[in-house]
Amino acid sequence: MNTLDTMTCASSVISIAYFGIKVILMIFTIIKIIHLFSVFIYGGFLITDNLFLNKMPRNLDEEEHTKARESFMMFVRKVVPPSLVVAVLSGLYLIFQVFGPITDDGLSTFQIILSIKAFLGIWLGLRGFLQVYFGIQPFVFKSHILPFALVVTIILLTQLMYV
Ligand code: HEM
Q1: pLDDT digits 0-9 by tens, 40-67
Q2: Is residue 46 part of a domain?
Q3: Which 3 state secondary structure label does DSSP give 100?
Q4: Is the dihedral of CA 37, 75, 152, 83 positive or negative?
Q5: Which candidate, 114, 115, 126, 139, places its Cα nearest to that of 88?
Q6: What is the pLDDT at residue 94?
Q7: Which pLDDT score, from 0 to 100, does residue 138 have?
Q8: Nearest residue CA, atom 7 of ligand 1?
Q9: Nearest alpha carbon, ligand 1 atom 2
């Protein structure tokens, strides 16, 4: 193999490696976008429910309210639980990509906050999944206030972990 062949071969290897890195970065970005949209759907429902829908009884009598809420919830049940599952699965992929090695100094602030966020998110996901698909409710609460508070906390933690 002459020098020219060696150089062509080396440049091909570099091009392939560069392409590989680009694809990996793209997969990360695509999964992160999926994560964001799924948490928008899940969090969006909780925000709508806690800020607006729970005010319906003020203007509607009980029968009207039950009917209005049920017509809304019919669609919520189809979309929101699968979004939560997607949020957790995509989150698990992201955490494996960004967590990084634990050094001799112990966990970094980023790793500590990310772990708390992941724990809360996984707990929320497991709770929702068990409740919707298996009828198991580990913590009995009738309203959506706790999941709402957890989503707000998780979003705050997600921003704080970069500080
Ligand atoms: C329903 C619960 C969840 C909510 C509301 C949520 C929210 C978010 C948001 C808003 C971001 C984007 C941050 C930004 O780019 O500014 C994000 C990123 C991220 N999420 Fe979640 N998440 C949830 C569940 C999870 C779970 C369960 C995990 C892990 C097991 C996870 C791991 C991650 C990671 C690692 C990133 C950062 C990716 C990066 O460094 O760019 N998330 N999350």
Answers
A1: 999 999 999 999 998 999 999 999 999 9
A2: yes
A3: coil
A4: negative
A5: 126
A6: 96
A7: 64
A8: 155
A9: 121
Tally of structural domains, the chain: 1
Pocket test for ligand 1, best of 26, 32, 35 (most atoms within 8 A of CB): 35
**Ligand 1 centroid from CA 94, angstroms:** 8
Please indicate, yes or no, if residue 6 is contained in any of the structural domains: no
State the pLDDT at residue 141: 62
For residue 151, what are the domain limits? 35-160
Q: CA-based angle 6:9:13, to the nearest 5?
A: 135
> CA of 7: how far to CAs of 2, 3, 10, in Å?
9, 6, 5
pLDDT tens-digit map of 86-119: 999 999 999 999 999 999 999 999 999 999 999 9
Please tell me the residue having the least CA distance from ligand 1 atom 32.
91
Q: Which residues line ligand 1 (CB under 6 A)?
A: 32, 35-36, 39, 42-43, 87-88, 91-92, 94-95, 98, 114, 118, 121-122, 124-125, 151, 154-155, 158
What distance in angstroms lies between residue 100's CA and the mean position of ligand 1's atoms? 15
